Amino acid sequence: MKKICPNKINTINEKEILVVDVRENFEFKEYRIDVENIENIPLSEIDNKIQEFPDNREVILVCNNGLRSEMALKFLEQRGFRNLKFIEGGIVKWIQNHLKIIGNAPDIVSHSLSLDKTCGK
């Protein structure tokens, strides 16, 4: 699986990389990770918006906890996309690694799933 831990990301603001938040629009408007090249394409709309995914640059998918972004990755790979990764643990692990977000995540996000900020366990 092509996953990347938030504490290993150091090049996410490069112009060649596109971050796609696959949460619903209302979630994205409330809070999101603080990176330059980010778009919101909800998992529920990916099939209708598949043409918005570039096939010539790396795409990193993110959601709240990694579940939807992993599903999106599998869906896109089945349709021929190859330059894909997803953020393991999603925004939860992003926050646990003290990385910046825009907006205010609810307290439950920062306390859900895991108290461990590392990945791969």
From TrEMBL:
<dbReference type="InterPro" id="IPR001763">
    <property type="entry name" value="Rhodanese-like_dom"/>
</dbReference>
<dbReference type="InterPro" id="IPR050229">
    <property type="entry name" value="GlpE_sulfurtransferase"/>
</dbReference>
<feature type="domain" description="Rhodanese">
    <location>
        <begin position="13"/>
        <end position="103"/>
    </location>
</feature>
<protein>
    <recommendedName>
        <fullName>Rhodanese domain-containing protein</fullName>
    </recommendedName>
</protein>
<dbReference type="Pfam" id="PF00581">
    <property type="entry name" value="Rhodanese"/>
</dbReference>
<dbReference type="InterPro" id="IPR036873">
    <property type="entry name" value="Rhodanese-like_dom_sf"/>
</dbReference>
